[in-house]
Amino acid sequence: MLQQIKGLHHITSMAADAQANNDFFTGALGLRRVKKTVNFDAPDVYHLYYGDEIGTPGSVMTYFPFPHIAAARPGTGEVGETLFAVPRGALGFWKERLGKLGVGNITESEVFGEKRLHFAGPDRDAFALVEVDHDHRAGWLKGDIAEAEAIRGFHGASLRLADSGATGELLGFMGYEKVDGKDDWTRFAIGNGNGADVIDIQTLPSANAARQGAGSVHHIAFAVEDRAAQLEVRKALMDTGYQVTPVIDRNYFWAIYFRTPGGVLFEIATNEPGFDADEDTAHLGEALKLPPQYEQHRAQIEQILTPIKD
């Protein structure tokens, strides 16, 4: 069993409109935009990162807003719901706030003894706020949301799978333990993590496969401290039979990717070097930052990208 993984690093999804996406995460949810850059493989598309003050691993939601992308079709083989942690007693505040802002699909539930407020993003993305005790992470407090209600980062995520057996074994190999289960749900958690420690699997053997599009998660990333730990994880995964990419420099972290038995794309990302690698902490997310290979094309890229109004 691996010991290097410390919970989630980030979750990356797809959207249809950059402005609506930015407004939802920085406005409705009160997160900080910590980086405004472009997709490494499609530099005419933004890559937007939202999180806490410095983009701490375990707090960062990222998006590729593809103009004119078709809507997603939910199903198996994907991340079903992204879970954000909030302090105990905060859900009343969030229910009222999101309701006033016209956010859709607001419902309440209790899962594995945790109170949740479910809601949809601009592209019908599935989210939930979960009341979590003893989460000492700091939220982003420069907006209009107080410390007693601010999002602390991820609590975790749920996976929708046709068969959960092999993915459950993979999570066990990655350092997660099965801690609870009920009906078609199984909960895995990692000890001594970064706070974004939970993966829930919902097994839906008769459901249709998901079709990716606006509102669906592209990949889910797990955190390791540094490149040395990442190489250890890569070797262990490859020795177990997984096809893992070479290490890829993403400017703010190094990444490796592999497809899970259930169809979900997993990434292992380093905590280093961080989002302040090319911007001062006080000004994170303000300027358009380009990967070095695209800097010579800045004028053309800036002409193509629709400016985002903050």
UniProtKB/TrEMBL annotation:
One of its GO terms (molecular function) is dioxygenase activity. Residues 7-132, 153-271 form the VOC domain. Residues 77-126 form the Cyclic nucleotide-binding domain. PROSITE patterns: CNMP_BINDING_3 (PS50042), VOC (PS51819). Keywords: Dioxygenase, Oxidoreductase. This is Putative ring-cleaving dioxygenase MhqO. It comes from the Bacteria. Coiled coil: none annotated. Its EC number is 1.13.11.-. It holds the Pfam family Glyoxalase. It comes from Martelella mediterranea DSM 17316. The keyword Oxidoreductase applies.
